[in-house]
Design brief:
The protein is of the alpha+beta class. It is built from 16 helices and 10 strands. A hairpin with a 5-residue loop joins β7 and β8.
């Protein structure tokens, strides 16, 4: 008998003895006591009573009333390329259907036919769209977006943003500079080329060729925590291919996006926060030409000449440092240097750069040893402003708000908006669906940030509120619980969005 067999037999004997002891009562089983979860407070919306869900849905619809009519009025003026003698569904009906597709977090076109088309939302469509007769099909919406100019649809969305930043509501929420975060993200990728404008990558192996749709997104970060999607620049081959046959990239598209942002926000009064990919001479020069402030992440392997000068100046500039200790034990050590010269390009363009580093030290309890262990993390940025002990903390905290766009990507990809889903393989329709997603996100952001909805957002979470509202409205006739909808001929009357009545949450 081998040693493994002997161990197995002994283990079986112990198992049998333990079972007999339990059966005979000589031994008892005890379950470890689990920590008791805190009881949920009694809140409106926490329970599932009909009256509470009625009131939650009515609050949502009341806020939707202030936004949706003005949006539909503007989008109804889009150039409809369909044959007007053969159409069954009007342009406002299809546009509203597309917005509802993303408002209620529908996962695909097929799901939209099942969940939106086969629900009680017919009454909602009938209230907002005149002469509405039947619920459209998602494929009809896709064919409409194939013919509509996606750039025209994007320009309409720019008008919504421009109207908001010129409103008195925006001045109350964000009296300072415009804080804009820019970053690129991939929508989806395939192993086959569905469009010649798709970007390709193979990592040196032709057998692993992949084609992707890539977007450069920008968001507006407000002082009260709101993150509004701004303009989108699509990375695409074709006209973007240069003479050397190189593909479009984030840096090239940033130049185009920055020009559009400058037309929308103007020169000055803008602070852009960017990741390390944009720590290049052309990007910095463009920001300076527009009079924009910037905070750009500076990686250790980028701009080596700047790092050499910074490390040398740090040894002799003894006053350019600051140490901050917080009550929770966090220690921040700031070091900076101003006026570092940097030369780039064939024309030897010169820039004066300001560099700041922040090293954080804190203690965490080790999960293995159970003892506190020291943790460190280091950050570094390029700043457009000269740094000193009075502004270094504020500028670095502003640079950290770049993570808001990362959280935005996480939200639109994994929390209901299905950003990475391919709603259409037609390139123009894909851009159109992306713009409708931004409009729906724009609307939901305003609604969930309003003071009327804060009680429910705290109790249910943003995604939970949207899911509960639309699940309830899909199975319940809207007239049974809500009497605040507009009954006028909305698209024909050029109504503007009344941001002042939303009463958004303050900072």
């Amino acid at each position: 008998m081998t040693s493994k067999e002997r161990k197995r037999l002994k283990q079986e004997e112990r198992d049998i003895k333990r079972m007999n002891d339990i059966i005979s009562g000589r031994a008892t089983l005890e379950m470890p006591e689990r920590p008791k979860k805190p009881a949920q407070a009694n809140r409106i919306g926490g329970a599932a009573s009909v009256e509470e869900q009625d009131y939650l849905a009515e609050c949502y619809m009341r806020l939707l009333r202030f936004l949706l009519p003005g949006i539909l009025a503007e989008l109804s003026s889009l150039n409809d390329t369909r044959s007007q003698n053969r159409i069954k569904h009007s342009l406002p009906a299809l546009i509203l259907y597309g917005i509802l597709l993303f408002l209620c977090h529908t996962s695909s076109r097929r799901a939209a036919n099942r969940e939106v088309g086969g629900s009680q939302l017919y009454e909602l469509m009938e209230e907002f769209v005149p002469n509405f007769k039947s619920m459209p099909h998602a494929d009809t919406l896709s064919r409409l977006l194939e013919g509509i100019d996606a750039n025209e649809l994007e320009s309409k969305y720019e008008g919504f943003i421009e109207g908001f930043i010129k409103s008195s509501q925006f001045n109350k929420l964000n009296p300072g500079r415009f804080l804009i975060a820019v970053d690129g993200t991939q929508k989806f990728s395939r192993t086959w080329c569905w469009d010649s404008r798709a970007l390709s990558k193979n990592a040196g192996d032709p057998d692993k060729e992949r084609y992707s749709a890539y977007m450069l997104e920008s968001v507006l970060v407000l002082d009260n925590g709101m993150v509004l999607p701004l303009l989108t620049e699509t990375l695409e081959n074709g006209e973007s291919l240069d003479g050397n046959g190189k593909q479009d990239c984030e840096r090239k598209s940033f130049k185009r996006l920055a020009e559009r942002l400058m037309k929308l926000f103007g020169k000055g009064c803008v602070t852009v926060v960017l990741d390390g990919l944009y720590a290049t001479g052309p990007v910095i020069s463009q920001c300076k030409n527009y009079g924009w402030e910037f905070m750009i992440t500076l990686k250790s392997e980028c701009l080596k000449s700047v790092w050499e000068n910074f490390n040398g100046l740090r040894k002799i500039e003894h006053n350019n440092n600051l140490t901050v200790t917080y009550d929770d034990g966090l220690i921040q050590e700031y070091h900076w240097s101003n006026g570092i010269e940097y030369t780039y390009g064939n024309n030897h363009m010169q820039l004066s750069l300001n560099v700041v580093t922040c090293q954080e030290t804190w203690y965490e309890e080790s999960k293995i040893k159970g003892k506190p262990c020291q943790k460190t993390s280091k950050f570094s940025w390029l700043s457009s402003l000269k740094l000193n002990s009075d502004n270094v903390i504020e500028l670095c905290m502003r640079a950290r708000k770049r993570w808001r766009i990362e959280n935005h990507f996480l939200m639109i990809k994994t929390q209901g908006y299905e950003y990475e889903h391919c709603f259409s393989y037609n390139w123009n329709a894909m851009k159109g669906f992306n713009c409708l997603l931004k409009i729906a996100n724009f609307v939901n952001t305003f609604i969930l940030q309003s003071q009327l909805m804060q009680h429910y957002v705290v109790a249910e979470g943003k995604q939970g509120v949207i899911k509960k509202v639309w699940t309830y409205m899909k199975i319940r006739k809207i007239s049974e619980f809500c009497s605040v909808l507009v009954t006028n001929d909305i698209p024909r009357e050029k109504k503007k969005i009344n941001y002042g009545k939303l009463k958004l949450k303050a900072a």
